[in-house]
Amino acid sequence: MTVLEVVKNRTSFRGEFEDTKIPRGDLIKIMEAGLAAPSGCNKQTTSLIAVDDIGLLHKLRGVINPQAAETAPAMICVLTQKLIAYRDRTFYIQDYAAAIQNMLLAAVALGYQSCWYEGHITDTDAIGRKMADILNVPDDYELVCFLPVGIASQPLRYADKKPFAERAWFNGFKRTD
Amino acid sequence: MTVLEVVKNRTSFRGEFEDTKIPRGDLIKIMEAGLAAPSGCNKQTTSLIAVDDIGLLHKLRGVINPQAAETAPAMICVLTQKLIAYRDRTFYIQDYAAAIQNMLLAAVALGYQSCWYEGHITDTDAIGRKMADILNVPDDYELVCFLPVGIASQPLRYADKKPFAERAWFNGFKRTD
User: B75 forms bridges with which residues in the sheet?
Assistant: First the structure.
């Protein structure tokens, strides 16, 4: 698939996955795609932990509430360091978002499905911190997102999107010429 | 090129562009890629304005200081609405970052180069607001980034990146097994 095809085929998959182990080589390719994303002032604030150990996946699921991605054979946890890029400016959110988007596309290109789980684990119940503790992540890193990785065993569904003309214009706000 | 090749070939291009008009169809494909990115709770907080009118490009360059992307035959301006996704949570930064990353990849896939200019225009001198005024963008939208689009006429350069093992691990922080 071309980039444009992958971009359009990608969706947030919240269904069940096949019980098929993901080759390490594929997880590495997905993580390499994440790390290849740009970052503000090249601060490279994003780090990643792929989890494919059954026992660890079980422990992580034990703190994810409500449950999500219960059947995923692997997940990639996204860590950020809130580093200053210059003066008082930080771009760590942009950095990890770009890395996540690259990984979502890479996963689809390799035949997998995934979903961007962020609010789920960064709300006030701090599930991300519980996951970080299980993975021995120190306090100067924040676990902000996890991406399940697996082969979908249920149909994909696509979010309804506003039409192009409501969100994209030429040469001026809401201009189409 | 495959997605993984495009991801690795993409770089932040700050050199000069060829003086070649970008077909509208290509700008539309790039913007469609941006709008296909996921958004928190599907709020679709990101909007886009492609600028290919010579006079408008000239006006926009007049407020971009220090100068950047002076020779780009087109630019895509990224707008955001700071909408609540749920309770007090917003994801508009993640939303536009994912959209930008999709557009950077789409541009490379189509043979163009680009660069994520954000801090440049969202600093305290508020260049983004001056650009927004030129494009008649109302106050409830913020212009947070512009992406030049063009064919590079100078060599690409790649940022130095930390090795994989310093940023990506398996089954625990800094674990490699």
Answer: B51, B148
What are the helix and strand counts (H, E) for chain B?
Answer: 6, 4
Residue A17 near residue A73 (C-beta atoms within 8 A): yes
Phi, psi of A49 (to 5 degrees): -130, 115
- Cis previous bond, B66, omega within 30: yes
State how far residue A146 is from chain B, nearest Cα, in angstroms: 13
Query: Which 3 state secondary structure label does DSSP give B90?
Result: coil
Per-residue pLDDT at A177 exceeds 80: no
DSSP single-letter state for residue A123: S
In this predicted model, what pLDDT tens digit does every residue of B143-171 receive, in sequence order? 999 999 999 999 999 999 999 999 999 99
Q: Which of B8, B167, B170 is nearest to A24 (CA)?
A: B170
Tokens representing residue B29 in the block: 């494909």
DSSP summary character for residue A23: P
pLDDT digits (tens, 9 = 90+) for A53-95: 999 999 999 999 999 999 999 999 999 999 999 999 999 999 9
Tokens for A54, please give them: 């059954």
The answer for B 36-65 residues in CB contact with A (under 8 A) is 36-38, 40-42, 44, 46-53, 56
Give this complex's ipTM. 0.98
pLDDT at A126 exceeding the cut of 90 = yes
Q: Is A111 on the interface with B (CB under 8 A)?
A: no
Mind listing the pLDDT tens digit for each residue in B13-67?
Answer: 999 999 999 999 999 999 999 999 999 999 999 999 999 999 999 999 999 999 9
